[in-house]
Give the backbone structure.
Amino acid sequence: LRKVFWGVTEFQHLVDIINQTDLVENIDTEDKLGQPMINLALINDWGTVDLFIMPYFRERTFPGIEGRPRNQPVVDDDLAEYESSAEETHIDFAIRYSHYFGDWDVGIAHFYGTSRDPRSFLTMNSSGAPVLAPFYDIINQTSIDLQATKGNMLWKLEALHRSGQGSTYNAVAGGFEYTFVGIFDSSIDLGILGEYHYDGRGEDALTFFEDDIATGMRFAFNDAQSSEALMGLIWDRDSGGKFLKIEASRRIGNDWLLEMEGRFLFDMSPSDPAFALSRDDYLELFLTYNF
């Protein structure tokens, strides 16, 4: 099992498709499951070509009836269906070219196989309760990710073209991050982030990011404890809904790590894709001991 990350933007990793998302751990789609794979990397002066063969598919994990935060109705994994008769044993393929050209880092990829983000259909479970049943399509997805480093400024772009999951569509996420080094004559660096996220499916999108603006601040304290903090706000231009995320971490001594994470939704309308989660704000603290 391996985890492979593609992408450059902060608030949504649009082109990151190799690993399945674990929604039990977090609603921000950043937690991933390991993927069985064969990976061949061809490294040359003109760039790196990665070839992937994935012989087994892992379904997306969703919170159950007692889980929080969760959809309403809940997603019933036992009712999952596949477009392919091979179901989870369908062999998926991917290829990616990556290289740098001066200040630019470039990645171009194509994926063929079972979609990691299923569509959901309303049905009844064996008890007669309404539930959502996930359906996994076979898709083709071509994508590009770019990052340009211009002094203290990072310019970022992710874009994809996908077919096989309903209507063919395009999606894009792009923006910047500017870092102020040593603010107020201190050792603290402050990064200012701004991004725009678009999905051509509009209200039919399977993501929260169909027409959204995201802004944020990242603090790097550059101390012996590796203290960091991130605060971001995502605003849905159509519904007016807002999603606030807060993250912070700090090492304690040599073996302990203290982390804080908060997710808050407000001004949600019934038409917003995240409306089912609008009452599921939460704040978590993690204390980890490293052996």
The longest strand covers residues 166-180.
